[in-house]
Amino acid sequence: MNKILVPVDGSAASEKAAIKAVQIARKYGGDIVFLSVADVRGKFAYMGDGVVTLPVNHAQISAMLLENQTKMLDVFEGIVNTEGVKVEKKVLAGVPYEEIIKYADENKTDLIIMSRRGYSKVRRFFVGSITQRVIADAPCPVLVINEDDQ
């Protein structure tokens, strides 16, 4: 188990996934990548005639989102005790599940450990689930830690 990818969104659920990843990395000698994806979709303006335009400050908004994700990872790394484990932090921009899968594939990840919040089946149907999409298309095994797991 050489490379463990842990998608992080700053939630308590992703903290639990990170803690589990550190335990596994310590036991099997693996390295961890904490990955956060700034979702820059939806930053477009739709005109009445159906024309899509970028807002004047789209680049500025995207840069701000990336900066916020980087700060969140810095704080997150301070919360999770990673002593004795090699940890890398990575921030990407894009559609979260697509970027997680792409990163795992391109970097020959051995295991993805991620969280899932306790949404009902109905809510997951309407809002979608990044975790569900990663499980379906990941190039490696995915260990899912539920928000309410101990």
From TrEMBL:
Highest taxon of source: Bacteria
InterPro entries named among the record's database cross-references: Rossmann-like_a/b/a_fold, Universal_stress_UspA, UspA
Coiled-coil ranges per UniProt: none
Domain (UspA) ranges: 2-145
CDD domains: USP-like
Family: Belongs to the universal stress protein A family.
Name of the protein in question: Nucleotide-binding universal stress UspA family protein
Organism: Sedimentibacter saalensis
